[in-house]
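User: Just a sanity check before I run the rest of the batch. Below are the structure tokens for the first item. I only need the designed sequence back.
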């Protein structure tokens, strides 16, 4: 077990979720918050504010990965997926074998350029990136209905710490749990990561349906079929069913499919209100991971002939200029007869 009494706990990434997690960790530890460059770190340390959130007094801000690694035993990387691989490359020479890394990034990494021939082995989850790049094996992730703004406002929430290591599960619970933040654990790391990734596609669809003002009955149908599609994709990618039926699965799906505070929901909502995908993506303050995930999962499903109607229609809207009104209309008319088709 790492000696948590003598070292900081670190968070890499001063975005909205990273900052919220850093503040949460201050309930149980002193925290290093790593910003992307010296200028931003200096400004955050001076203002005592990041991503619009006041910083707890127990947070020290830096951009120095070497100093951070030397002074922390547990590290929470919470950065956009497109920066994740490069960050691990920068970090690896400073890590020791006893470091624990628990990431909070809901995205996927593609080994090569996107193409119609993408295969499952071409795509890595963030925990796989950590292990492949750094050699660290004590790895976990955070997933669940964790809307950063609500956590920052001190509203009650829950997360799942997932890992194949009981030690990582124990440390994650010990560091994160508080009176307003419940921490559960799940030993299906791969499944929990895929839950957090795939539900972002569904949130875009739900935002579109909401923006078109089609009502709660239609949204309930969409969320139900979204859950079925998530399980279909996840099991084909090697995940177990259990993760999808828990807080990181149905719990996170419910939150992101119903909240304007979700960046992915907001993308769909703005599409429904007439904005173009390029304009929306270009004007987001932070990354909506569902956009890139849609592209990756679409090409996977095309290659393997998976049944992913929601993903395919979201892809057409985002990348092929297909009208969102037509896409949502098609979703409501899917030729589905069996209610539950993923349990034998």
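Assistant: Here's the designed sequence for the first item:
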């Amino acid at each position: 077990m790492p000696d948590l009494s003598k070292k900081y706990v670190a968070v890499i990434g001063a975005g909205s979720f990273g900052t919220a997690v850093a503040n949460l960790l201050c309930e149980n530890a002193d925290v290093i918050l790593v910003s992307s460059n010296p200028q931003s770190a200096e400004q955050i340390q001076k203002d005592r504010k990041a991503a619009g959130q006041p910083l707890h007094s127990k947070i020290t801000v830096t951009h120095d990965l070497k100093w951070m690694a030397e002074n922390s035993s547990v590290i929470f990387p919470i950065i956009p997926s497109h920066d994740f691989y490069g960050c691990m490359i920068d970090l690896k020479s400073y890590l020791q074998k006893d470091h624990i890394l628990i990431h909070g990034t809901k995205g996927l990494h593609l080994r090569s350029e996107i193409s119609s021939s993408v295969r499952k082995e071409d795509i890595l989850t963030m925990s796989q990136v950590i292990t492949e790049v750094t050699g660290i094996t004590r790895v976990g992730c955070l997933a669940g209905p964790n809307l950063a703004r609500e956590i920052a406002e001190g509203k009650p929430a829950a997360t799942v710490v997932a890992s194949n290591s009981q030690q990582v599960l124990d440390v994650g619970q010990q560091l994160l749990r508080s009176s307003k933040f419940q921490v559960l654990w799940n030993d299906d790391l791969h499944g929990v990561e895929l839950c957090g990734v795939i539900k972002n596609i569904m949130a875009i669809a739900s935002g579109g349906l909401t923006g078109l003002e089609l009502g709660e009955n239609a949204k309930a149908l969409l969320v139900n079929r979204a859950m079925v599609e998530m399980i279909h994709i996840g099991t084909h990618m090697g995940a177990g069913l259990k993760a999808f039926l828990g807080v990181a699965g149905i719990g996170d799906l419910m939150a992101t499919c119903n909240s304007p505070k979700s960046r992915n929901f907001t993308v769909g909502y703005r599409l429904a209100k007439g904005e173009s995908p390029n304009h929306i993506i270009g004007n987001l303050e932070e990354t909506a991971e569902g956009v890139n995930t849609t592209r990756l999962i679409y090409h996977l499903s095309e290659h393997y002939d998976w049944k992913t109607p929601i993903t395919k229609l979201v892809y057409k809207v985002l990348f092929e200029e297909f009208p969102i009104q037509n896409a949502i209309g098609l979703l409501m008319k899917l030729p589905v007869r069996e209610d539950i088709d993923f349990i034998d």
